[in-house]
Records
---
Amino acid sequence: MISTVNRRQFLGTAVAASAASAAAGAFVLGFPTQAAAQGAAAEITAWVVVKPDETVLIRIARSEMGQGTLTGLAQLVAEELACDWTRVTTEYPTPGQNLARARVWGNFSTGGSRGIRESQQYVREGGARARLMLVQAAADGWGVPAADCQVAKGVITHPASNRRTTYGAVAGAAAKLEPPKTVALKDPKDWNLAGQRLARLDTVDKVNGRQVYGADLKLPGMLHAAIAACPVFGGKLKAFDAARVTAMPGVKKVVAVGDNAVAVVADTWWRAKKALDALQPEWDRGANAGVQQAQIDALLAEGLNAAQAVDGNVHGDVAAALAGAARRVEAVYGYPYQNHATMEPMNATAKWTAERCEVWTPTQNGEGALAATAAAAGLPPAQCEVYKLHLGGGFGRRGAVHDWVRQAVMIAKELPGTPVKLLWSREEDMTQGQYHPITQCKLSAGLDAQGRVTALDMRISGQSILQALFPNNVRDGRDPVVFQGLNAGGGEAMIGYGFPALRITHAMRNPHVPPGFWRGVNLNQNTIYLECFLDEVAHASGQDPLALRRALMKDYPKHRAVLDAVAARVGWGQPAPDVKGQKIFRGLAQTHGFGSYVAACAEVSVSADGQLKVHRIVAATDCGHAVNPQQIEAQVEGSFVYGLSAALFGEITVKDGAIVQTNFDSYPMMRLAEMPKVETIVMASGGFWGGVGEPTIAVAAPAVLNAIFAATGKRIRTLPLSRHSLRA
Amino acid sequence: MPQLHVNGRLQQHDAEPDTPLLWVLREQLGLTGTKYGCGVAQCGACTVHLDGAPVRSCMLPVSAVQPAQKITTIEALSADGLSHALQKAWVALDVPQCGYCQSGMLMAAAALLRDKPKPSDADIDEAMTNICRCGTYNRVRAGIKQAAGIEQAASTAVIHLTRSRA
């Protein structure tokens, strides 16, 4: 699906694609065979298509959901391709084409801040191979060695003979060449396009309403569906009386969807929604109908002291060290369920026939969406196709579970040949989520007479995402993702402190509410637990929170470097100047997650009547290589909105087995007026590739909570903050 | 057939009178730039101008809008979709991330600037209550100030402590 065209062209593409023929596919993608016949475009490598007008089409397998991966990946390809950046456009190859071409575009999954770091090597190679082939084609035409040619901005020259040609002119010939087996990639210090603060490629259509999101898609003859699933997870649809609504304006059909939902199909979504509201289906609420939030909390609390647990990161004799400690500090923390709340609610448009099923949807994983489509359609994946659209937010909700795609296909099966767009209401989105898992944590630290931390015991109790979604990855009851940010080593999510004795364990407790990967995942609460608790330990023993941390970080120089960077920037140790007569207090946090090292210092004030104001955040990120610094800044700033919305307001609770919060009035968000200034320090130290979209979220809450303690002496151990009074 | 004055011309629709204006715009008139976010006037993704004032169209019954009242949607914020000062600033600063909330943001900001060409930070705080989940708030503020020609300190100072090394 072409992603940088205007709406009219887009609709043309969508219609052509829906014709479901090989030619339609070629229209979308421009495969070399058809392209040559059309004289239109030549696929040089799977990642690069060059047109005679010098337009360079770069294929992007990962999904753009606001995080800027589309532009960053295009920069990496273009860097190696040595093309003219002003001629670059992008398109999504489809999951069906990836399947047909032996996954030539690799993994489509866009989560875990992996978009760039996981695919940078092969997309750069795709660009470099294309450059070599284009230059070879020019050299062949001139009868000169390719090594004697030069290339820049899509122009190939042979200085010795003063000859010149362009990528567009030689693309057809280049496409016929055998791709070189090995290619050398540029040293990042020689980058010209990558590493630069380039403007995003997807901005213009987002300032005038032309960007077509899944919710906006129009297909000829399309109908609209509104859906309601049983409010209690695990419950079922018992009965409904379609006659109640069939005479309402626009209503076409009422259909049961699977065993737990019902949908109304109408000529407009609003009419479908109105009829659905009038339908009043009966539910069999099932075995979970009596579950209350207090029971879930009690289940987790029991796990804090349970004899049975699995080890996450253990060394030394913690029990002995704690028993022999001059001083002990203990605390219990908790983190609630939270909803992703993408601004664009879940939606998919499906068209089903006995031979073929097509789906148009915003997804973080096109291949996952294709698998869900095929399963629901009852067709082999080769007879299905998914067309991706830019996402109106993803945050993990649109990646691992394609429940909305499955529903859309099941509805479309009831109306063969008719495209049906399923759009969830905000209420459906809020109450049928895959929620940030709920956990509690009990921490105990031992200190010697000099105030040195000798031991840390950390028991996590609560929900496992992998047990719910990928149980095959849980071995002997151990979900490795639970320990995000607390691992003994590795490049992904490593604890940054050298405790002489350490015991981090997990007691898995799985309530009935489905958990999911939620931007930042388990790094979020683990960083709150560890960073707020270390702050407690520092204050309890009369030590400076920075000094206490640094004393434990001798073997963790990259963790320490980001922490030092924010401390230096704010002038830690010197009092912060008052703002409008209000005293300013600071809090620190650091962590390692998604391959990057991040730290933050928050500056807050709390008025006598308990009003919190977060004035300023200084944040540092070491992501190894910085592909687009201005987009890294955008992600860091955005991480504070997401992380502080969660810390200040984010809480999903359960009553009678169902989710209590239904919309933004009961599940509030941070607004612009509450947003602090954010100063971002991008300190790419090189030598590794770290993710950017998620890690900083984890330091947002603990930095602010630690600053609140400095301001008020109140230690907040459960979220959201809106449940607590900060009044003096 | 009922009529609405949208983006400079009278247009007919066949929606029921209690249909929110948002869904008439999106489904009857094909103007999908205005977004559905919550349906309860909380998020502002559905913001349009009614006689120049910002309104959240998701809770406004179409029957409450008279044909004489002029509705402006994001599609008509400028003639070419790029030349409004806010659109220029949004592009220059790369304000949008996912972009889904940005139509509403821009319409709210445009109404603010028309009433207060040089808004203070407090004015911006008060006028810009739209929800953005990606976290564009600081660039939205900077974009409004840039469009208004207000001098501003760099809001996001960036320091490259070390150059990238392989």
---
Amino acid sequence: MYRKRATTIAVVMILVLAAFAAAQTTRKEMHFKVGRRASISIVNQYGPISVKPGPGKRVMVTATLYSGKVEIDQSKRGNRVSVLSHLLDGADATTGRVDYEVLVPADASVTLHSTTGPLRVEKLRGDVILEGSTAMVDVRDVNAAHVHVKTLNGPVTLTNVSDGYVEVTSVSGDVALNAVNGAQVHVNSSSGRIHYDGDFGEAGQYSLTSHSGDIEAIAPSYASIEVVARSVQGRVENDFPLEPEHTSFVTRAGSAFAGTVGKAASSVKLLSFSGKIHLKKREQ
Amino acid sequence: MTCEEFERVLPELGSGHSIEQEEHLKSCPACSDLVGDLNAISQQARHLQGSEEPSPWVWNSIEVALRQEGLIRQPQQQHALLHPPRLSWKLRWLVPAAAVFLVVAGVLMHQRGAAPARIAEQQSQPAGVVTADLQRPNQPEVMAGDDLQLLNTVASRTPSMRAAYEENLRAVNAYIRDAEQSAHSDPNDEVAQQYLRNAYEQKAMVYEMALDRSLP
């Protein structure tokens, strides 16, 4: 008898709390008409931002707010749209959180800032600038664009970025590039690991550099690269048969190697101070 | 009006001067030369500004640094993204100069080698971003004053982020130390120079992120 009553009370309390939480959640939608190659900027201290291509020349922003301690400021000037989470006094990571889902024209340039993230962008052809301290960053299916990412310790994953100008700087976040190629692909890390899995494209400049993080690059046997790899204190391994090449430093087995594979269409630098470096041949 | 008083109001001067300031300029060749130099730099910087406007994030970082220096005093009332900080036009030349300086100064100081401590002291506040560890190469555990100030700024704004910034600053400082040692041991090593540039770039990024977050 008592047990049944206690269960009933518990259920009622959960429902009341859920209703209370729902009442605290506010959903706000914003629509902007834009032209070709619009510029979209979203600044959100706490919470995720997800950007996908939408229909037509229109930007649609859906923001979910979890308290009254944060407001949304918005502006549109010409072809530039800015949306900002404006924290009020006393807001913290919980009460200041805003979740953004954004649809933009595929050719729009997008700039996203969030401390906590995550930040997700997919299927765009415009430039993508992402910055987040601890935010996880995920960019996929972006073509012919600049992709610039900065994080402190947020992990970064780029997938299917073709013909790009890619620049990733992360202090301690792991960086993974899958099927990423382009004219310029640069990763600069302190202690995060760097993982590259792709074919290094054609006529690109690739540099993966870390202080103490390990670097692993996986390429197919048909890759066409001129490669330099060196670690001052870490171990260096290579699975490819290299044509030797002159370098500005002494290549020592186990700590540095240099050479060419195929026609050496792309330049690849793998540099670490104390991390391990491994250039792997992808198994067919 | 004394030179000290004039220098105090110098950053806030627009195109005109008060009678008192005009009189001081007439009677003081040093201050008159200073204003002349600033005007000349400002004129040159305008040409640069037209070709490539820095992002609002750079403006924000510089503004915070200047505010911490006491060079500007009025707090920014409007949000920086929508309304970029309105620095006096005379100070705008500092923006490209300081942005470039953050990355380049450390490398140059390292390469020149001569009297790095003195240079670091003279340019300590904004430049301290990249010079702090040059002064204490053998004390990796001690966080430099500029770094501590930065962490306090982060903590005052977002306490939960202090630990993350501290951890990452230590990682970057370790990178800089190793890169410097590597470059010292072989100054002609291109790869060592690359490590050094990357390390300083990381530190500049950490400062930029932290200062930007500290805006009201």
